Hints:
By secondary structure, chain A is an all-alpha fold. Chain A is built from 4 helices and no strands. Chain A has one domain: Helix Hairpins (Orthogonal Bundle). In chain A, helix 2 (26-47) runs antiparallel to helix 3. The longest helix of chain A has 32 residues, at 70-101. By secondary structure, chain B is mainly α. Chain B has one domain. Helix content of chain B is 72%, strand content 0%. The longest helix of chain B is centred in the C-terminal third of the chain and has 34 residues, at 210-243. In chain C, 81% of the residues lie in helices and 0% in strands. Chain C contains 4 helices and no strands. Classes of the chains: A mainly alpha, B mainly alpha, C mainly alpha. Chains in contact: A-B, A-C, B-C. At the A-B interface, helix 1, helix 2 and helix 3 of A face helix 1, helix 2, helix 3, helix 4 and helix 6 of B.
Amino acid sequence: MSYLAYAVAGWICLVGLYGAITSRNLIHLALCLTVTQSSTYVLLLSIGYRRGGGAPIFKGTVVGTRSVDPIVQALTLTDVVVSVTVVGLILALALDVHTKTGTADPEKIAEMSG
Amino acid sequence: MTRARIRAIFAVPVLAALGVFLFWGLAGVPDFGGFHGRYGTIINHRATPERHTTNAVTAVVFDYRGVDTLGEEFILFAAVVGVVLLLRKGDEGEPPTAPVRSEQVRLVGAVMVGVAFLIGLWVIAFGFVTPGGGFQGGVVVAGALLLVFLTAGYRPWQRLAKERALDPLEGLGVGSFVAIGLAGLIASGPFLHNFIASGRTGTLASGGTMPLLNWATALAVAAANVVLYAEFLEHYVAPIFAKEPR
Amino acid sequence: MVHVPEALHAVVLVSAALLATAVVLTRNTLRQILVNGVYGLMLVILFVVLQAPDVALSMLVVTTIAYPLIVLAAIARTRSGKLTDEQEQE
Lengths: 114, 246, 90
């Protein structure tokens, strides 16, 4: 059990990379990149987890009860919201390529550019 | 054998090799549930007595690691500037009307837009007392504005999401964050120093500079999201409405 | 002390891994955005079980509002031109 969380994070990362490598469509590729990014969230939160700990919110609970780590949560939550705009930029670039070459397939684009 | 098939066959051993190193490295991480980092424990014990906020995560985001949040906001800003540079081409001509014709949908929209907007404001405002904050609430507010497009049509959305108003708002959000940090520098001590007195724990008037940074972040995130949606809708979805005769 | 049974951790983690594989293996982009939505909701459950309500809130909001909009707008753009053979196969 103690290794399962990290193994799942590693598996999600590798699966996302496999999807990005064998992708036939640029939009599918952007979503596979978001899957790889979500593996880092799972890894960060699994590292910060403390057995028997509650959430690091102290309204109603006494300060000093056992809680999980708040720093990895802070890193993850800003990352989740900011990566939406970055994926938006990736999609805008992909659609620019689609407009100029007429296809969204990475294979056909490579053939056309030479 | 197509090139895609060759790529797939080559990808599996390469990813397996990467996986060996990845899982070997992950085996050295401390046990799941046995995290011994001292920084987190110290912040859990000291955030509420020092800053009078009950949400330790928001205290980390806006006070203890405020510089990291500033960096993330600049990533947001730069990505939205990139999208605008790619997509905005000046005057696009007459926008399509594309109204939503179903009365039930319009009724649901008329009720839900206000409710969603209020929920977004509540999530932002109470972000340092209970879970929430500028980032989450900013996206909820942007979603409430998006509900106008989904339930009323394209023309009302365009009247609401004007570029001329949204661009300065986004700059104002990020700029206020930097300005409050500089005010901390001028008042005493380092950049982003929390120089306002902390109020009473558990109320809205607590946390020092944290509520101000919270609202600045919420403004920046909401405006950036609405600009992103507006650009995508205007350049990718509106031409489809213009082509179909309605 | 909050006692979370280990079986709950194991079930949610394995479900997240299976759904991530499903997202990658779905080649049709329109179906993939729906599977991505389900994967996002499973991640929200995982974050709640790992005692992180702030992160769960932000993931919930992002995966139900922002991602479907930008990906569906992009799909609409790639399908509104001439339908070529590759697009019909999708």
